[in-house]
Write a structure and sequence with these properties.
mainly beta; four-stranded antiparallel sheet; about 40% strand
Length: about 250
Amino acid sequence: GMIDGFAAAFPDEDILIYEPQRQRWSLYFDGSDVGLGSADLDAFALLRDGSLLLSIDKTMGNLGGLGPVTDADLLRFQPTATGQTTEGSFSLYADASDVGLEAAAEDIDALAILPDGRLLLSTTGNFTVGQRPNLLRGASQDLLALTLTQTGANTAGTLALYLDGSDVGLSGPPENVDGLWATARGDLVLSVAIRATAGSVTFGAADLARCTPSSLGDTSACAFDLYWAAAGAELSSQNIDGVDVVVVGSGS
């Protein structure tokens, strides 16, 4: 897309920075510089050491010398330079098939890090994880918590239902959660694929809504409010499908 005042068009493998105090956009991550030109970077989270966890929307045969990666894998990108000339290296952070995410609809399209270190995920469609009697099923509006005990090529960990989207008023493909960030106190800031109405709040694909949970898991409940309106930042015609918020002065 294009944003007035932004230096150039941006494709869907890039990450942009928006500074609300200055009402200014800039480029943080140029995906084509590091081999993602044919993919959509559809989920990411910033780590404290400056590296990125990310997921893409398609299988790639050999990304940055890493070898094959799928749309449900989590990659770690360690930058040596960001911005207009992005440089760095990829490594495999989590092999999704090792924790049961293998089907086409189980593409990870939203990613956040919880205050306790667990990873929060959402998928593009319905998911089925595990075996009876511990079979875990859900849909694109649900959130999963991934507790990792080992990362890399031999990933080990467990998935659990974190938020039942239908319990809090999210349902169906238009309300697919495709952007996600967790605050320090555990509130969930999210974006959806097309449009959603939860409680008294209606928001579009480029807006961010905040869910303040009072209950999680199989019986989920939360209060919604509008966290950020895209129209004021010239982004209302786009779809935010990955988000992370850096609170200035927080050290996070």
